[in-house]
Amino acid sequence: MKTVMSNKWTIALYVWPALLLIGCLIYIPLIMTGYYGMLEWNGFGPREFIGLENYSRLMQDSMFWKSAYHSFLLGLFSTASLLLYLAVSLILASKIKGAELFRKIYLIPMLLSSVAIAQLWSKIFDPSNGMINRLLISLGVENPPLWLSDPNIVLFAIFIPIIWQYAGFYIIIYAAALKNVPEEVVEAARIDGATPLQIALRVKLPLISSVFKVTIVLALVGSLKYFDLIYVMTGGGPNRASEVMASYMYGEAFTKYNFGYGSAIGFALLVICLIVTWLIRKLTTSKDDYQY
Amino acid sequence: MSEFAAKKQSDLGKEMSKSGRSVGSRLGTGLLYLILSILAVFQIYPLFWLFLFSLKTNQEVFSASPFSFPQDPQWGNYAKAWTQGHINLYFWNSVWYTVAAVVLTILFASFVTFAITRMYWKLNRLVLGLFMIGLMIPLHSTLIPLFSFFKNIGLIDNPLSIILSYTAFNLPLTIMILLGFYQTIPREIEEAAVIDGCSVHRIFFRIALPLTTPVIATTAIINMIYNWNEFVFVNTFINSDRWKTLTVGVNSFVGQYLTDWGAIGATLMISIIPILIAFIILSNRIVEGMAAGSVKG
Fold it and tell me: Which residues are listed as membrane-spanning (chain B) (predicted)?
């Protein structure tokens, strides 16, 4: 048995193709991002090694910090909206008829591409012909907001399709967790006279807290990586009011051809994502939690 | 549907007569349903609105109420969208990139998961760790070096760069989902096969793959959705219309036709319809896969 199942050649044959792929397309590029960040390079011409100049420039680049601030703001909104999804999930778990159907309906937007969502919501937000402003005008609102064209509210406007897209996803995760709450525990609480609200908040909620912590990481780190929707909807505008880290990196590299500086931003994005992941896990994990 | 509604009503009736609940708690339940229904409308209505304006003329979009039904449905918008602007070409590109990447991903991921869970070697934990760390990597941090790597080996504007990238970035998630399933397969099955003189390859192709078909189906669907919707790689690595996918093609097409709402709506609908059909047929598996793949942000 062991001799057959520990044949080195077979193992190599099975493992190498995948290992080669993630090595060449994920790990080597990650290291190269850090290195390219030390170059003055337009992506085509000669490369000039300039040490840590790009990184020190990045530290003083107010545009980078602004984009990081926007990313964190979106992360904060996303994390706060988890409470809404959690509330809906708890309602759905309390013997609601058709809960399965509700969950599936909520999930539909999650299956669409961010590009389609961005295009659709640009139309919904259209100042003169969009769904929202037409409704507001017919309700008698005189000067409805310009939504994506108003630098003061553009981030909040972008956040609406983000909720629309991800609500079903988190509700599905919470549903899977709530399904694992033992029926006997809920039954015992009911016999002791607990109201449905008490059962939801005092019995079910504590039992899924570890999953809730995982979703905090997902929401926060996912927001730091946000790109497609914003790139298509606003391109980071108006007047860079919706620029996030990934869109700033993309613009520097593929519009302005500052490959060196763009790489430095990309590397900073990586470091920030890893630090935030580590930090949240550290802050929220207790030793009895289930580890993902 | 009517059967379902009738069943629901009779259930409801039974429950009410049985428990004789107070007016207050019934009101409370009604309120909960109202909240859930409002949320459902919020999730569905934008898509319905898209469908409505995809069938309107510009004049109707600009003058009639946005909530009205199209007076004379312009199915021609769809024909126009499909033939103009290469949408049919993009559509088929999307189909074959998606399928090729899904097949490669599942084959490679199954190889790795089989080797890690069923075979005996020293570095298996380390290799597994390398794949699992891949789940946390933001792909934007790899984009610039990937671009210059593909440029150096002549794969810019070549579908291979897309298919390989999809495969590499979906491997970690696919392996993670497969892993849980492989660990539940009893070892006796392959022990018996080895005693019967079965080779490792035969065990993999004739026993492991067929046994894991349910989880392969789940990962395949999740992979398909991610690949079908992917934007950044194609937008960065592909320049010519010939090799664009639907997601990127739709984006540039919509950019060109800023003012033709009907054509834009129809184009977006065409890009969404395959996903909606898949959802109607496979919703249970999709829900399952989304829950299993929740680590991917």
Answer: 31-52, 95-116, 128-150, 162-182, 203-226, 261-282
Burial class, B83, CB count within 10 angstroms (exposed 0-12 / middle 13-18 / buried 19+)? exposed
Q: Which residues pair with A39 in a beta bridge?
A: A49
Query: A-chain residues within 8 Å CB-CB of B39?
Result: 88, 102, 106, 167
A49, containing H or E segment: strand A48-49
Provide the CA A45 distance to its chain's centre, in angstroms. 35
Residues in Cβ contact with B227 at an 8 Å cutoff, skipping those fewer than 6 apart: B97, B98, B101, B102, B166, B170
Indicate the residue of A5, A29, A110 with minimum beta-carbon distance to B145. A29
Q: How many CB atoms within 10 Å of residue A163?
A: 17
Q: What are residue A48's DSSP bridge partners? A: A40
Q: What are the residue boundaries of the structural domains of chain A, listed by start?
A: 10-284
Instruction: Give the residue extent of every domain in chain B.
Output: 80-292
Q: What is the pLDDT of residues A34-67, one digit of tens each?
A: 999 999 888 788 888 888 888 999 999 999 999 9
| Residue A112 region by backbone torsions, left for phi larger than 0, else alpha for psi between -120 and 50, else beta | beta
Which of B8, B141, B248, B250 would best serve as a mutation to test chain A binding (most A beta carbons within 10 A)?
A: B141
Classify strands A48-49 and A39-40 as parallel, antiparallel or unpaired.
Answer: antiparallel
The whole-angstrom separation of Cα A253 and Cα B130 is 28
B6 contacts chain A (CB < 8 A): no
**B295 contacts: CB under 8 Å, gap ≥ 6:** A214, A218, A292, B135, B173, B176
Question: Cα(B268)–Cα(B264) distance, rounded to whole angstroms?
Answer: 6
May I ask the CATH class of domain B80-292? mainly alpha
8 A C-beta contact, residue B80 and residue B265: no
Q: Find chain B residues with C-beta within 8 A of A274's C-beta.
A: 136
Q: How far is CA B192 from CA A6, B187, B207, in A?
A: 16, 9, 11
Say if domain A10-284 classifies as CATH 3.10.450.50: no
- Interface predicted TM-score (ipTM) of this complex, two decimals: 0.88
Q: What is the largest CA-CA distance in chain A?
A: 80
| Measured CA distances, A232 to A26, B55, B78, B84, B131 (Å) | 25, 24, 23, 21, 31
SS3 at position A76:
helix
